């Protein structure tokens, strides 16, 4: 979603509340100490890592840069994520569509003169080869409109790179292009591979990314043509939508595709934690930042369940804590508590949540001037990991089976091989809003103590405790110490920030008759690992 033109303000990031049983509770101040029992032999539920299967990124052409690919490898190594989603694979800068290619290049006339000659897959191949070579699949967002196929080239979206967002001038030509793209990908990568990719029709057609009028009806036309054209390449290709902002249009979309017998393999939509209740729910509630994502996911989950197609998978193909370039949100350590609690709440409701985005090799608001400006990535410019990168790294340690806990500030899991992993956190309200990071006046909030009783583990087991918080793995604090330089950094400054970003080695502790006490500071996330026996 990113910095949409409709947005003018921000809201506070508040504490989340949802019991692991699924009961929703109002946000409240955490007690100073919490006692938690973890039974390592308790019955578990599947805990697929839905929060780290897909990441978003800057537009397609940026993936050819060395800096993009370096950051991609680093996030892949930390999370083993499966796929990447970006805008713009159909844009002119990627070079796919040029109906004048034959007349501009008379020498090509000697080649086979058919419609395929107007397509150039060179950069698409380089883009997708670069991902696959690094173990990452494309999550293919089919956007935006090639200029020579736009019904009205004057309709653009105000991002830095000014994408064309008009409907096509000729749907027969659009259909031919989509089918040709599907056929080419199958020929190059094989159907068994490409059948695992998700193809998503457009991006946020309910906002200024779609110039059709009326928006919904004209998007249905785009979706219908695109889905059928893609399936013409192979019925095994997976297609979905409506990829809306603010968790919108899903019941109408499902009704449309069901009644019109249009192919659909998944439902996708977006939400950000500082979206407004009036936009997501049509209410005047003051929904805190920490519960907005959960509530939007729950809304759409329930809409699908009540629909004529109740088994459709649900993907939130964009989500995040802020769309508004808030450095004290996106760049700061409390992303750890926010992310962990969002995972806790959304577990069991969704198949895939794609965090936007993996890297600040990103130009929607222009060329990046400083590493810490509230960018969407978990790695800042100059390959400087943010606290959010470290949070993803630690939460990757969670197992694939969840152990139920009666806690709003902890997750427990096992991997089925005797390893037990516990995440715990101490949420605190940000120390200021807006585009400038402002340190809180005085303490951000009280430390929080956790008293664990671990059952069915060795009473004197050794545990490892990993931390990301204001004093562990926090590159933003080092940037503040530098006085927040506003321009390019020296190589020495970059090295200093990269060193500050590094996660410290874990603390080694010993259970005392099965007990463990830990203190977590405000904005802190801690992850405990141990062997069951």
TrEMBL record:
It holds the Pfam family Glyco_hydro_39. Belongs to the glycosyl hydrolase 39 family. PROSITE patterns: GLYCOSYL_HYDROL_F39 (PS01027). Keywords: Glycosidase, Hydrolase, Signal. InterPro entries: GH, GH39_as, GH39_cat, Glyco_hydro_39, Glycosyl_Hydrolase_39. GO terms for molecular function: hydrolase activity. It comes from Terriglobus aquaticus. This is GH39 family glycosyl hydrolase. Residues 1-29 form the signal peptide. SUPFAM superfamilies: (Trans)glycosidases (SSF51445), Glycosyl hydrolase domain (SSF51011). Coiled coil: none annotated. The keyword Transferase does not apply. Residues 35-501 form the Glycosyl hydrolases family 39 N-terminal catalytic domain. The keyword Ligase does not apply.
């Amino acid at each position: 979603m990113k910095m949409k033109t409709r947005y003018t303000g921000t809201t506070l990031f508040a504490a989340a509340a949802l019991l692991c049983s699924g009961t929703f509770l109002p946000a409240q101040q955490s007690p100073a100490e919490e006692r938690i029992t973890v039974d390592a032999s308790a019955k578990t539920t599947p805990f697929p890592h839905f929060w780290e299967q897909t990441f978003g990124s800057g537009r397609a052409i940026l993936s050819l840069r060395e800096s993009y690919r370096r950051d991609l490898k680093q996030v892949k190594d930390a999370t083993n994520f499966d796929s990447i989603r970006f805008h713009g694979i159909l844009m002119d800068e990627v070079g796919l569509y040029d109906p004048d290619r034959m007349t501009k290049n008379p020498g090509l006339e000697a080649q086979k003169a058919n419609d395929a000659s107007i397509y150039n897959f060179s950069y698409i191949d380089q883009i997708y080869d670069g991902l696959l070579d690094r173990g990452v699949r494309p999550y293919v967002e089919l956007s935006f409109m090639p200029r020579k196929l736009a019904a009205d080239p004057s309709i653009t979206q105000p991002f830095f790179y000014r994408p064309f967002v008009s409907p096509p001038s000729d749907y027969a030509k659009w259909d031919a292009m989509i089918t040709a793209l599907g056929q080419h990908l199958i020929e190059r990568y094989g159907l068994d591979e490409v059948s695992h990719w998700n193809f998503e029709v457009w991006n946020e057609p309910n906002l200024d990314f779609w110039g059709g009028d009326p928006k919904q009806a004209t998007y249905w036309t785009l979706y219908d043509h695109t889905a059928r054209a893609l399936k013409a390449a192979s019925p095994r290709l997976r297609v979905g939508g409506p990829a809306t902002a603010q968790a919108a249009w899903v019941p109408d979309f499902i009704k449309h595709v069901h009644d019109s017998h249009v192919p659909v393999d998944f439902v996708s939509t977006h939400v950000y934690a500082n979206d407004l209740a009036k936009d997501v729910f049509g209410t005047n509630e003051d929904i805190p930042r920490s519960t907005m994502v959960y509530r939007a996911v729950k809304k759409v989950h329930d809409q699908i369940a009540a629909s004529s197609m109740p088994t459709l998978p649900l993907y939130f193909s964009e989500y995040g804590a802020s769309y508004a370039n808030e450095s004290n949100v996106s760049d700061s350590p409390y992303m750890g508590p926010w992310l962990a609690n969002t995972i806790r709440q959304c577990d069991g409701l969704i198949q895939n949540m794609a965090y936007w985005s993996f890297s600040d090799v990103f130009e929607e608001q222009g060329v990046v001037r400083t590493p810490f400006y509230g960018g969407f990535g978990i790695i800042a410019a100059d390959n400087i990991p943010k606290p959010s990168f470290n949070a993803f790294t630690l939460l990757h340690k969670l197992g694939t089976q969840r152990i139920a806990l009666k806690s709003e500030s902890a997750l427990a899991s096992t991997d089925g091989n005797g390893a037990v992993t516990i995440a715990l956190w101490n949420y605190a309200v940000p120390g200021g809003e807006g585009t400038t990071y402002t340190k809180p006046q005085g303490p951000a909030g009280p430390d929080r103590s956790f008293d664990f009783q671990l059952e069915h583990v060795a009473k004197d087991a050794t545990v490892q405790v990993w931390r990301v918080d204001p004093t562990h793995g926090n590159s933003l604090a080092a940037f503040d110490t530098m006085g927040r330089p506003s321009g390019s950094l020296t190589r020495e400054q970059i090295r200093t920030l990269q060193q500050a970003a590094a996660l410290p080695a874990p603390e080694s502790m010993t259970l005392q008759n099965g007990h463990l006490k830990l203190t977590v500071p405000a904005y802190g996330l801690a992850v405990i690992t141990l062997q069951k026996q």
